[in-house]
Amino acid sequence: MNARYDKWNESVERTPEGVLTFSQAKTYGEGQNAILLVHGFGDGPHVWKNLAPALAEKGYYVSAIRLPGWGEPIEAKRTVQIEAWENSILQEIERLRENHPQVAVMAHSMGGCITTVMAQAGILNADALVLYAPMLEVSSARSPLFKTRTWYKIGSKVLPDNMIIESVFPDHARVNEPRPKTERDPFSPKQIYNLLYAEMDRFEDQPAQSPLPVRLVLPGEDRVVSNERSERWFQNLEAPEKCLVIDEPAGHVLPLDVDVLAESDRLVVWLSKQGITP
């Protein structure tokens, strides 16, 4: 696995700081109110490359951040903790609030799990939360023999702590072509998987309640995370306002699979109802 990581690492370009060139944080637009975009597992700000500029054209200031560790060399990932991800989100919201009275957070997959946990804990200092296929439970659709959590429990006991694990599955995209591994961040130390499952456990221990309005967007089919778990959570969710959207043609990589023009129009309508106008 180390050899596979080295070969992949030789095929990608990094900045002098070691960050994948396609995975750098980016901002768009000059709007009065702001939208913060949070990416998912094995990904980066570039997953928003279609939706972010469309929202900027609608009149929002858009910030797509890179969570600590992602896009960086494997050794940097070994030291990351959940608190670093949370702090990077909170710090960016505070930065946005310096010039933008209203801030919405939009998050995909793992980013959706992190921001949901933060919202339900009352520490997500935003004005609305939009979730795209949040990783509240990993799907077992691509798991042979056992459920994914069973495989995780086995792996957590038998795999060495310093092992590098490669995500062998491609993007689950149903509208667009899956991205090659040279456009993703597919190698992670075992410790990252421990963080991921610990965060899902934190979610399970929380009551389904959010002080923020919540818009949940799910694909018609998801082979990465469990649509059913997200739907159960939504039905039980207590929030000032909640909205569920099913994008039937799309797969898990919703930010890339949605119809950008239609989704940006829908977002403007929903966000404006929450007082977050362009």
What order do the helices and strands come in, and which of them pair?
Blueprint: H1 2-11, E1 26-28, E2 34-38, H2 51-58, E3 61-64, H3 74-77, H4 82-97, E4 103-108, H5 110-120, E5 128-132, H6 148-158, E6 164-166, E7 187-189, H7 190-204, E8 214-219, H8 227-236, E9 242-247, H9 254-257, H10 260-273
Parallel strand pairs: 2-3, 2-4, 4-5, 5-8, 8-9
Antiparallel strand pairs: 1-3, 6-7
Helix pairs in contact: 2-10, 5-7
What does this structure look like?
With 278 residues, the chain is an alpha/beta fold. The chain has a single domain, classed as Alpha/Beta hydrolase fold, catalytic domain (Rossmann fold). The chain is built from ten helices and nine strands. It has helices at 2-11, 51-58, 74-77, 82-97, 110-120, 148-158, 190-204, 227-236, 254-257, 260-273, and strands spanning 26-28, 34-38, 61-64, 103-108, 128-132, 164-166, 187-189, 214-219, 242-247. β2, α2 (51-58) and β3 form a beta-alpha-beta unit. α2 crosses α10 and α5 (110-120) packs across α7 (190-204). The longest helix is centred in the N-terminal third of the chain and has 16 residues, at 82-97.
